Structures are given as structure tokens and as C-alpha cells.
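Reopening this one. Same input as before:
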Amino acid sequence: MPIAVYVLGLSIFAQGTSELMLAGLLPELATDLHVTIPQAGLLISAFAIGMLVGAPVLTVVTLTWSRRTAGLVFLAIFVLAHVAGALTSSYAVLLATRIVAAFVYSGFWSVAAATVVVLVPANSRGRAMSIVTGGLTIATIVGLPLGTVLGQHLGWQSAFWTVAILCTLAMAGILATVPGERPDPAAAPRLADELRVLINARLWLAFGTTALVTATILVVFSYLAPLLTQTTGLPDGSVPAVLALYGLGSFIGITIGGRFADALPFHTLFISIIGLSALSAVLALTATVPVAAIAVIALLGGFGFAANPALNARVFSLAGDAPRLATATNFSAFNVGITVGPWLGGLAIDAGAGYPALGWIAVGTGAAALATVLFAAFVPVSSPDPADRGATGRSRGAG
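Same output, byte for byte:
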């Protein structure tokens, strides 16, 4: 893999730390900002809303930009949003900075995907994206618990300052490794071609799978900190360690998923979604048992993130030679799930269902995700892209 792929992964680590760290900071944020925990959880949804809108919009705006220039601009705005967030004591202002940061973060994801498409062969794109996305899993192992520890001991603002510093360092890496030339006008991506790809019904089915799998992960993940302290009965100081275990499971899962995503996308999705749903049910039943809950949470990270490379590889396969807008739309689908998951969880908590109910909600969204995969694998939706026929054939033939 080109060194730029790993630098992009480290850049995603820096930004992904911000995306994830609020899951470990909800109690501190709620207390300091004088809001309820579900209201603090909406800061996670606000981030997702920014990403939902930003990916396709910024992809269209930057089609003819140098990938390096676009990445640097997005990172610079991300840094400024976190400086503003660290300096405010207003819930409304913090909510706004989360949306702005997420808007450009999604643009950076689009730049990363476009760089992968150019730098690696088609049959390695899923693996390359697993390396880039692996930055997010490293954020769950290192960034999330680090942000939780900083928030508990130095205030949640210290986590925001740390992210701003990490992203500034990431800018130096982008400047050094990502090609800086502008696309050749004759070979530059054309918006008409990118829009034409989106007509494929199978592509929208893939987007639906992405959204539902992500919601299944986030409905539990978003409220892990209060679940562990209020239901499982763990002390506050143990939360970072459990979140690190979740991150370790995520890293193992995405590494294994990346190995099989290009050749066996459907098998990878079947196994990960079934495992994710079953583990969510187990968590609902054992949330009050510390040893069982901790073990299940680590496995949830593994099965949840194992699906990620296959979700990306599926879209690459269907998009063919015009993947930028399709990939950006898939990032929006991820963030539909990130928005819906915490929202559904918040509804259950506000209704007095208790944190174990989150597991049952995840079982429902997981079943819906599995239905979309089964439909895509075995029911003709439209004339698929030739690459998609190959992926489907491999999945059926191996099964």
C-alpha cells in the first residue's frame, strides 16, 4: 500500500477521535452544560447530521480540486471548529461547532476515498479502505479512552484541544504524502457520470444496508458510558478500559473484514450482521452482569466493524469508474445510521425502558439490515454493474 493510504488512516484517527469521544464524555457534558444525558447524546447525532449533508455537497464542490488541497482545507476548518468548541460554555454553540466539524470531516472521507481509487488497483480498494477506516478503529482503542480520561480529570474541553493538535499534525502528513496536482481537465470526474451511477437500484439497497448496520452499532455504542455505570454498576474509572476493549475488538474485526471484503462481500456482511444482532440480544439479557457485559461489548466492536470494509467494497463494485459521488452518498448513509441509532436509544431511555432495552432495538435494526443483504444477494433488483455480478457470483458460488 502507498504510504499516503496509511497517512489518510492516521488523519481519520485524529478526526475519528472527535467523532467517537463523546460516547465517553456524556455524563461530564450533561453536568457542565446543564442538560440531560439524552440531550447530550444529541451532540453525537448533530455530528452525524453534519456528515450526512457534507459528503455529497463537498464532493460536488471539489470534483476538480487537488486532493491534497481539499484535505488540507477540510482539516483546517475541523481544527478551528474544535478550538471554538473548547472555548464555549453554551450547548447551542457546541452543537453548531459539531455540525461544522462533521461537515468537513465527511468531505475528508470523500477525499480519502478518491485518493484510494487513484492509488490502488480495483481489486485492492476494499482492503485499502479498511486501512483508512482502521484509523477510526484505532480511535476507539486509543482516542476514545484517552478522551474519556482527559474529560474525567481535566474537563471535556481538554479532549477538544487534544483533537485540534492531532489534526494539525495530520495536516503535515497530508502535505508530505498526498499528491498535490490538480486533475487533468480531460480526465477530471464529470458530475453527469457521477449522477448516472446513482440510478442503479442495487446501489441504493447497499446504502440502506450501510445505514441499518451503522444504526445497529450506534444505538448501543452511543450510551455505553451510562450503561456501564448505571446498569452494569462499574465505577467511572473503569469506563475507558472497557471502551478500549471495544476498540480492540473493532480493530481485529475491521482487519479480518478487510481481508475478505473484496472477494466475499456478502459472506462478510452475513457473518458480521448476524453476530452483531445476536450479541445485542445477549447484552440486553446480561447488562447487569459485569463480566458478561464487558465480554459482549468487546465482541460487539469486532462484529460491528468487520462489516465496514464490505459495505465500502460493495459500493466501489457497483459504482465502477465513477465512484466519488456514490462513495460520498455511502458516507451519508453511514451517518443516517449514526443519527438514527442515538435517536432511537434516546427515545427508549426517555420512555423509561432502561439501558438494556438498547440491545433489543439493535436486534430489530440488525434484522432489517440482514434483510437488505439477503435481498441484494438473491433477488434481482435491476441490471447490475458487471463488477457487481462478479461479486454476487463469488458470494453465491462460495456459499
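So the earlier flakiness isn't reproducible anymore. For the record, The two ends are 30 Å apart (CA to CA).
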